[in-house]
Here is the input.
Amino acid sequence: MEERITVGLVEDQFLFRKGMKAILSSWQDLKVVFESEDGYSVLGKLKEVEEVPQVMLVDLSLPPDGTKEFTGKEVTQTLRENFPDMKIIILSVHKDEDFIAQLIECGAHGYLVKDCDPGEVYEAITSAFHRGSYINARTLKAIQNNINKKTSPRATLFSLEQLTKREEEVLQLICMQLTTEEIAERLFISPKTVNGHRNSLLQKTGANNVAGLVIYAVKNGVIKVM
Amino acid sequence: MEERITVGLVEDQFLFRKGMKAILSSWQDLKVVFESEDGYSVLGKLKEVEEVPQVMLVDLSLPPDGTKEFTGKEVTQTLRENFPDMKIIILSVHKDEDFIAQLIECGAHGYLVKDCDPGEVYEAITSAFHRGSYINARTLKAIQNNINKKTSPRATLFSLEQLTKREEEVLQLICMQLTTEEIAERLFISPKTVNGHRNSLLQKTGANNVAGLVIYAVKNGVIKVM
DNA sequence: TTAAAAACAGGTATTTATACCTGTTTTTGT
DNA sequence: ACAAAAACAGGTATAAATACCTGTTTTTAA
Here is the structure.
């Protein structure tokens, strides 16, 4: 019998992680050798372990009480740098094409949405291991559309830059229903400055108004809502 | 050997559902006899099935593309009315006490957060079946605090009234970053009417502005954010 | 059928947010 | 030490949201 493929799981929801482990166990040629609940501890845990998994399934839900959240992109990049041979498969609820494309660009070897079936997870793992990647139709489409966007002139204007610390701080206060003046008081700065941050936020996130900003904050884990 | 407890799963995420099924299968005295992916089809499916589950695990994540979403409260109420003997255990990511208390008031027999461990799920199922309910410390606290709120004088002023259909509709459009005028166009009504709904929303939810409304919408599942 | 709730529509006023500018100072990385 | 980015602060204008009213029509439920 051939060596089994060793698999690692990064997933914050305990139940889902255990469920996934149970599912994967039904394939004889897979072996779950690593589990982690968040992006923080992955690296540390991996260095202490004798058996480094060949394929890592990474879920992108954020840890619910993260002071500084570790996004899927960061986890992917970190893993790629430290374990160049490891294949990384992203598991996420996001169907957004930009989002998918960004992950692949960061070095992920595959992308699965969470409503796929167990068979596809298996296929992704084996494909990533044997052929180096698993790109399904949706992922391919996302990558292609993203390339088109990049070559189009609008992309450079609208590109999703990262928020600065101050912007993130302002965004959190906006989500807490504070007005510009209240935020200014809270941060001991001029309302005009807050206004500037507001505008940067709207531009960077592509939102039209506070509603869009709040949604962005929720989606990107800038605030925790549950 | 005694009869096994029959269990049903309502959960939109395919992978999570399968994982949960795999987990539950490790207990010999449980038997998963029913699965549904959304609140809509539960009732219909249950009527076509020969074996109605004794305990139903209901996840509250919303179906990702629901035109008219079926909330956990509605599912609970509907099940209670049509299957009075069935025990209902809610499985959710929400840790909000009001939210938990509301579900229990709607007739749920237990409430679990999604990061609990598999053993607790098993305990909840058996406890609900044999003793009629499973109330853990968190749930109990939520119920108690909710009772306190109700008897306090402020509660009557601030009480979370239910949103009307129209209000919910307007709220969704607000979250989609539409302005009052755009919403009016979309719904073929006067901006003044939309304004009225806006004000009702602010009052009913206790929000100060759109940011608060969006947060409310996310917390209460009025919109789906992922 | 009748009362209550919901949906509708209008008014006035004020506050806040958004969309553009301009520029300086401070921090950061190399 | 230098350039770049971030944080800061000001201006002007307009658009939108919020806070209060008033009332009518339609729908819902008892």
User: Anything to note?
Assistant: Residues 164-167, 189-193, 195-197, 200, 209 of chain B lie near DNA strand C (CB under 10 Å from a C1'). Strands of chain B lie at 5-10, 30-36, 55-59, 87-92, 110-113. The first helix of chain B runs from residue 14 to 24. Confidence is low (pLDDT under 50) at residues 62-69, 148-160 of chain B.
